[in-house]
Amino acid sequence: MREIPAQPFAFPLQRDAVALVVIDMQRDFAEPGGFGASLGNDVSRITRIVPDVKRLIEGFRKAGLPVIHTMECHRPDLSDLPAAKRNRGNPTLRIGDEGPMGRILIVGEPGTAILPELAPIDGETVIEKPGKGAFYATELGDILGDRGIRQLVFAGVTTEVCVQTTMREANDRGYECLLAEEATESYFPEFKAATIAMIRAQGAIVGWTAHVDDILETINHA
Ligand code: C5J
């Protein structure tokens, strides 16, 4: 067994039981005219991590390890969108509204797609999720169980919302979770920093955090 240098202590990699989970690297969170921008956020913060997410994905592919992608999205009839989610806040465009990239966060719309640079390849699992967490109302738990996966490396956006929610869901289900620091981002730098700190606090209470270079170096030599 090899260990990935990590905080708060080394991550004990099980190469035959690890997968990369890339959370919601969708145009709606990263491009002007999408959901993230409609909430008043600076989406350029998200596009800046694309190169690091890309090399993490490519590293897992090269090592022959599974890559799982998630997409936050809803059915066109909005039957999986609670009013409490649709009506929250004061966005210029709500989920399901028609925007410049199609209907916001609706399955099959151009803006809902994963960024082309990070697009899944044949054979990779894509989880369409109506919630912030990727286990809620999806088949993710069954897929991981069938494949014997017990460790999850996380990348994607946003750090304190869908990434952290999914990590907490996974942690409660018994997975060992590692967050790739340069491959995750928030619209709020202080929220990213706080999330990293709280995940690894108290002896890795939610999981570990590590640098992309250390993750890649270890998976390629384990
Ligand atoms: C948000 C996400 N922030 N993917 N979604 O609404 O984090």
Automatic annotation (TrEMBL):
InterPro entries linked to this entry: Isochorismatase-like_dom, Isochorismatase-like_hydrls, Isochorismatase-like_sf
The entry lists its GO molecular-function terms as: hydrolase activity
Source organism superkingdom: Bacteria
CDD domains the record matches = cysteine_hydrolases
- State the Pfam families in the record: Isochorismatase
Please provide the record's keywords in A-Z order.
Hydrolase
Q: Which residues does the UniProt record annotate as the domain Isochorismatase-like?
A: 19-207
Q: What is this protein called?
A: Nicotinamidase-related amidase
Q: Which organism is it from?
A: Rhizobium lusitanum
Lineage of the species this protein comes from: Bacteria, Pseudomonadati, Pseudomonadota, Alphaproteobacteria, Hyphomicrobiales
